[in-house]
Amino acid sequence: MADFLESEAEESELDSEEDDQPAERKKPKRKAAVQSDDEDEEEEDDEERLREELKDLIDDAPIEESGSDGEDSDASVGPKKRKKSDDELDDRLEDEDYDLIEENLGVKVARNKFKRLRRLEDDDSDNEGADDPDLEREVIAEKLFVGGSDEEDENRSESAAPREVEYDDENEDMESDADDFIVDDDGRPIAERKKKRKPIFTDASLQEGQDIFGVDFDYDEFEKYGEEDYEDEEDEDLDEYIEDEEEEGERRRTKKGKPKRPSKKSIFEIYEPSELKRSHFTDLDNEIRKTDVPERMQIRDVPITAVEEGSTELEDEAEWIYKQAFLKPPVSKADAQEARDRSRRGSSTVVKIRQALDFMRNQTLEVPFIAFYRKEYVQPELSINDLWKVYKYDAKWCQLKQRKENLLKLLENMREFQLDKVMADPDAPIPDTMRLIKDEDIERLKNVQTPEELRDVHTHFLLYYSHDLPEMQKVQRAKEKKRQIEEKKKQAREEAEKNGEDPDEAAAAVEAALPDEEEPTEVKYAVRSGPYELCRKAGLEPLVRKFGLSAEQFAENVRDNYQRHEVEQPPVPPLDAAQEYAGAGGSAGGAAEAVRRAVYMCGVQLAREPLLRATLRDALRERATLTVRPTAKGLKMIDETHCCCSLKYLKNKPVRDLTGDQFLKLSMAAEDKLLEIRISENIEGNTSPSYLEELKQLYQKDEFAATVQAWNDLRAEAVTLALTKIVMPELRRELHAQLLQESKDYVLKCCRRRLYDWLKVAPYESRISEDDDDEWDASNGVRVVSVAYVPERSQCAFACAVVGGGEVADHLRLPHLLCRRTAWDPLERRNKEADLTALRKFILRKKPHVIVIGGESREALNIKADVSECIQQLIEDEQFPRIPIEIADNHVSKIYSNSIRGRNDFREYPDVLRQAICQARLLQDPLMEISQLCGPDEEILCLRYHPLQDQLNKEDLLEGIELEFVNRVNEVGVDVNEAVLTGRGTELLQFVCGLGPRKAQALIKLFKQTNQKLENRTQLVTVCHMGPKVFINCSGFIKIDTNSLGDSTEAYIEVLDGSRVHPETYEWARKMAVDALEYEDEDANPAGALEEILEAPERLKDLDLDAFAEELERQGFGNKSITLYDIRAELNSRYKDLRVPYRSPTPEELFDILTKESPETFYVGKMVLATVVGITHRKPQREMLDQANPVRNDETGLWECPFCHKNDFPELSEVWNHFDAGACPGQATGVRIRLDNGLSGYIHIKNLSDRHVTDPTERVRIGQTIHCRVLKIDVERFSVDCSSKSSDLLDKNNEWRPNKDPYYDQDSEEKDIRKDKESKQTKERMQYVKRVIVHPSFRNISFVEAEKLMEKMAQGEVIVRPSSKGSDHLTVTWKVAEGICQHIDVREEGKENAFSLGRSLWIQGSEFEDLDEIIARYVTPMAGHARDLIAYKYYKPLGGMRDKAEELLKEEKSKNANKIHYVISAAKNHPGRFLLSYLPRNKCTHEYVSVTPDGYKFRQRMFDSLGSLLKWFKEHFRDPPPSGTPVQRTPALRTPHGGMTSTMYHTPAAHTPAFHTPAHTPGPAYINTPYTPSAQTPYMTPFATTPRQPDFLTPVVPRHKAVPAYTEPSDWQKAAEDWVRHRSRDTPSTPREGRTPRADARATPRHDARATPRHDARATPRHDARATPRHDARATPRHDARGHSSGRSSRAHSARSTPHTNTSPRSMSLGDATPLYDEN
């Protein structure tokens, strides 16, 4: 039997080697080349002998499906056996046979097409197949990188091979963890005996398989059904066996060890190192797999190291971690929860931290193990997240400790160097420039607690000693060399004495034998050639000492905040003291320059003093403030929806008041050049406003002598230099970095919390009663039907059924699921019904426990209603139970459907179907499904955890995600057998304590290759060859379903393997079971007792576990009190799921899921864009209809409905028919809108505008996009109430905008707004909008260009050009005189667009039809009057200069003193005015004459001719000029600017505007048009009330009749109505009567129910254009429904598409996306 077992063991080894050959072949050929042919022949013979012995035991004929295993076996035997197997299998089956086998077996069978290909290639010319690199690459790529399944991962693992030529333990392949455990007969590992092949299977595992399946069990046959990708393995055969042909043409296979293929490339040569590293194929990965240390501990940046015995390092580290991680507060208040945790921890935490560090560093226990199985030593002070913090800070401690040791060594070397230098001449004084390293320096370095302090000490060291480093290095190297020589001599002497030789000769021989070594390359240090180094070389150090305090002493003064050290005052002034250093360093400035350099040197020394920097650092973190200002770009970009809206103006906000992610948001905005962040340069002192001033006082001598004051000034200058120029800028940058890191840590914590919320949900539990029917039993897993869709109807929706274990049972295509049942198209309705019928049958067939619908949009609610109806029909027709229907967030499932993993898992499925599968699996097990994204592609980062997660370092985010997975996975446990079975195990297993991606991959691969199950945890060691450290860490978290194993194995089943009880405490669990059942010791059967106690766990309640714990502690097992209670809980319920049970989403959560919004992105007060989709009405009730009072429009003669205001009824009876037919929609109540996120909204009519609105169509139109603000959110109805009031949109009182920061600088914001407004106005004045106007006088030119053009034009010529006031203004420029132009502003109204000419043009209060009318009626008359003045005999071209006029007049006066001389000149400074200068006596008087279209204005009087003006002037020149008196309107005079008084209608035609009409303008058009009163015209009777004259149409007939006095408004109103009626009957058509009726409040009296004609409240006439009635066809008054005429019919004929209301101005723009800023 022993021989049999030995033989079997050898065979097992052999098979293992053969199975492993694919990986072996992947090694570089140079490794194989070192083996000789003899060795190969010996191995071949050895293998043949073994096969002969065992040929009856195991049939080693290769099975095709076993892939490379059988092929490798044949290759080992030789050409003959190989040919036999090929012929048997390759030639026996054709493609049709394979198809039939696959169809019957249901699995994919590998086909040997590659082998035939190889044979054909072997027949080809020499080296052709072997030298095809493309084929090689394709085959290797197929094996390594195609797909994402675990089988393919195995192939990748086998492909990784080391590069070394010599074989050793380091070069084993990925599955070679087991090699050291497999030995031959002599006890040597197989790896030593077989240098080419490595076994996989152990003799124990093969023995077990043969015991179960019989002697003739063929392992390859069994493995076939576990493998899926045979083609990949066949690729290896193709790759390995394509070879060169012999010259004779004989075809044969050469052994792998023979170097016949120099062109063969390894994967290391073909693939990028980054690809190999990504898939864990490197030698380092192999080393990590083999090492018996938890993987995460190995790959940490600072590896875990054990602490020497007797060392106090753990105590020091625990104290340091407690202070740095748990006690020291952060600078900002980023995390409020952390502050609360900090307050509850006591000093006992240090002991717990020390214990945790001992577990981690000395016992290599991972955090989850400590948290679950060492609770007594860490709880309650340390949670699992606290333990991870300890683990993280341990790395920081180790790093800091190493750096401190390195710097300490440097200091000690420098100290030794200084000692040698001083002892070289002991009597000489120590040089002034040498600063000796003291014990205090060493002690200060040892007391360093943070990396910042260490950096301070290092820079301080470099300041004083960097110039000595090269020399010190040289001395140290010489000493080291000398020491080595002495050691060699000593050894030579000892050897010589032993041999009886002369020791001195031996030593001399050693010295002589030393080679003449070249000087080693010196370490290059940074050459310090800065200002400080120049000062040091100049020997200014003694002068610096005369400042009275050393840097260390000043730092101590600052630390203690009083003058601990008094300043030593030199007796001489600074310049005298610097005299001896005046020429130092070649400085030409003398003593003053030396003093300046000494000040700089002193400042640098102060700035580099570590104690001062530490004190300032603490002060800055405590007192620093933040000031934020937006840039010009930020002012435009940061609106109220921007995350920095409430932070864009901050003034002196303390950094300690920063919360959450505020600083990260500010930093992002600063990077985008939107904000400028400034940390305060001056911080507040302890007792005064300025800390700097306090520090200066600590470096001062308190005396008033001139010498002392001079030195004090220099000291203050040095302190200022040190702080403002050197220290504070560095510390501010450091503080900025720390604030940013704290903010990022907060975001990372939020990301982890979000992931925790996803992972903490337990698998869905069936809510269907299983009493009646076994079909609804959920013990094998919950069956889920999942529906996924895309909102576009062009894409199909899918349903799929997923059974237990995540297996997809079936799927259903639903192309018309989104169609409506009530659609008008009958085909659409039929398609919808067909889909629902198919879905109903699908549900009936699959019998799901739950149906889940992806929450893509609000359509999910409609689908849920449809599915619910299907279920209801099944309940009625098929007695179906009521199946729950859930709507789930599809965020994770969408990521999975588009991921590489998702495409590899379901390559032929569309994205939507993959999404449905993921939704179902998420319901079955969220932890398992989300972990599928944790592959090497890092797709887990695609999930959205936080809006700012992209700002985090990718490695930090990955680490945080991994820790969350580790916590949850170890809390839940992993069933390895299920993981292997479902193929979704590696991702979950990698998070088990002690394992990682590499170790988990190897474990899964081993079980897949052997097709074994893990039957007990002991097999992790016996089968998987797990080391003791990794086993202790992971065994408690790997669960085994002992119930499912049942009778399928003869191995011992340990029931505790299915629990969280750790194998180290199994004995205690058994003892508890025996004690609970009260067995006697001799009768006790622990295993039976356990099974019995699992059936009746309540009997454990009577145990006194505290006494048991005391007994264990007494026996030396330590404190196990909590562990025993955990064991009892586990025995009550093995591996009870501690996750939170699934619950349906709340209405708020469902709202967020379907709208894809969150409380941060959608809230009350948010300004949104919305599209108007309809108007809502309230239908009138019957009583209201009976009391209705239809209104007739007198102007149109049509009737109007009082409810819906429809106004096109010819007869009153039709209005009543309109009521009776129910056609009246009723009174408008509001506007229906739709938001961008799909929500429906409503604006009540009272929230539409700040003014009263009766008809919403006057404000908005359907399809228009408007701004509005959210007032209320109804999450259950998925609707919002909004407001579009201008007051709400502007929100000047900040009722709706997000709350501003308490330190918000409102004053600065308002100042910037004013400044921006002014700059915009200035810019608008400078800009000219090019216009599209066809007129001979129009030019698209600027002011300067117009004036330049005018130089060559005649007097009176006109240019019309764009205005700088905007697109609704024009400027008319006309030439007054040579070099003088007047620019007249023209306002446009009724514009169709920004570029066209307005329908009406206004100059001050006068209205004009077009540009021709302006030129004819306005400019030409003025030009004529100006021409008369210029042609006058006393006109002089003086440019209106008074001094020149005076000079001229005095000259004339001297010639003729009896005459009163006067002169007229055009005023250049006041275009359009002429300066009238006269000299009555000795004093010259100057007055202006203004040219108007109606004549000349002088002394507030109008004159229609130059003669009348001069006549009146000569008569009244002695009268004092009136100042501010009202205009005295006299008969026969005209009102200014086109406005006329009543008596002017008798003015001769020659003086009317028509007289000046240009030739191209028809005169009668102006004569027949009633004149429009201007701004200066008082209220008067409308034109139509004047009795008409027979000759009204003649040019000379008066146009108006005077009104003697102002009449009451009521009379005026009646007159207006009479005028309207009269005009509608009699007035002939004029060119202006065909215009659209105007409803402008500026010109038309509005006679509605609310308004009387507009007059001033003081009952005085309002002389402005807004109150003047416009008496033309456009000015029809509007009246309300109570018998007055209505203006609706007029508006119906308006050419403008935009409706108007009584309360809305005409100029309001209602274009797309225009906020309704209407009233303001």
Question: Would you spell out the secondary-structure blueprint of this structure?
Answer:
Layout: H1 2-25, H2 29-33, H3 37-54, H4 68-77, H5 79-90, H6 95-105, H7 113-122, H8 133-144, H9 150-159, H10 190-193, H11 203-213, H12 219-223, H13 230-241, H14 267-270, H15 273-278, H16 283-290, H17 295-298, H18 313-327, H19 336-344, H20 348-362, H21 367-373, H22 375-378, H23 384-423, H24 439-446, H25 451-465, H26 469-499, H27 503-513, H28 531-537, H29 541-545, H30 551-560, H31 574-577, H32 590-607, H33 610-623, E1 625-630, H34 632-637, E2 650-654, H35 662-671, E3 675-679, H36 691-697, H37 706-759, E4 784-788, E5 797-802, E6 808-814, H38 826-846, E7 850-854, H39 859-878, E8 885-888, H40 891-898, H41 900-905, H42 911-924, H43 926-930, H44 954-972, E9 974-975, H45 976-982, H46 986-989, H47 997-1010, H48 1019-1022, H49 1028-1034, E10 1038-1039, H50 1042-1045, H51 1066-1077, H52 1086-1095, H53 1105-1114, H54 1121-1132, H55 1147-1155, E11 1167-1178, H56 1182-1186, E12 1191-1192, E13 1199-1200, H57 1212-1220, E14 1227-1235, E15 1240-1244, E16 1265-1274, E17 1279-1283, H58 1286-1290, H59 1306-1326, H60 1343-1350, E18 1358-1362, E19 1369-1377, E20 1380-1389, ...
Parallel strand pairs: 4-7, 7-8, 9-10, 15-17, 28-29
Antiparallel strand pairs: 1-2, 1-3, 4-5, 5-6, 11-14, 11-16, 12-13, 14-15, 16-17, 18-19, 19-20, 20-21, 21-22, 23-24, 24-25, 25-26, 26-27
Helix pairs in contact: 1-3, 1-4, 1-9, 1-11, 4-5, 7-13, 8-13, 9-47, 18-20, 18-23, 20-23, 21-23, 23-25, 26-27, 28-32, 30-32, 30-33, 32-37, 33-37, 35-37, 36-37, 37-44, 38-39, 40-42, 51-52
